[in-house]
Amino acid sequence: MIRTHPPRSRKSSNLAALGGLIQVSIALFLFLFPVFKSCIYLESYLPILVSCSSSTYIETIGNLQGALLLASMLLAGALALLSARNPNPSTALLLRWSGVLLYIGAFFFADEFFRLVFLPGMLLILFSAGLTRKNRDLTAPQTNR
After folding, report:
1. What distance lies between CA 52 and its chain's CA centroid?
2. pLDDT tens across 77-128, in order?
3. What is the CA radius of gyration of the chain?
4. CB burial string 11-43: b at 16+ within 10 A, e below
5. Cα distance between residue 59 and residue 41, in whole Å
């Protein structure tokens, strides 16, 4: 059996998959589930509850920027998941760094909520990209010229 690509690191693939799952699940959770609750009281000094309503992040903020940020984090997670299944280390590296660059781009437009919520998954993807680069360099065939 001839191996065309160097063996991929299971650790970097697992970290990329975990980071991608975190990114995708948080983005879908914020898209679909109510995360903000607002209540109306009878008077400000009386704790008599009149009504409460729950809304999603998109319903509360309701702007295009929030939707684009969530979509970019969903895409970053999907890229990391694709890279975890890719046997070619250079393609996996490209997919992981693309996801990291999406997060860095979104970092400048996002508020603190987005920065903190998506940071753990992105750190895992960033660390897996570093491991992929290291493993690719160590397992690449050396040529003497």
Report:
1. 31
2. 999 999 988 888 888 889 999 999 988 888 888 878 788 888 999 999 989 8
3. 21
4. ebbebbbbbbbbbbebbeebeeeeeeeeeeeee
5. 21
pLDDT tens profile 129-143: 888 754 444 444 445
Residue 35 contacts by C-beta under 8 Å, 6 or more apart in sequence? Answer: 29, 54, 56, 57
Q: How far apart are CA 103 and CA 78, in angstroms?
A: 13
- Which residue do the tokens 């690509």 mark? 5
Show the tokens assigned to 77. Answer: 């997670």
Copy the structure tokens of residue 118: 């998506």
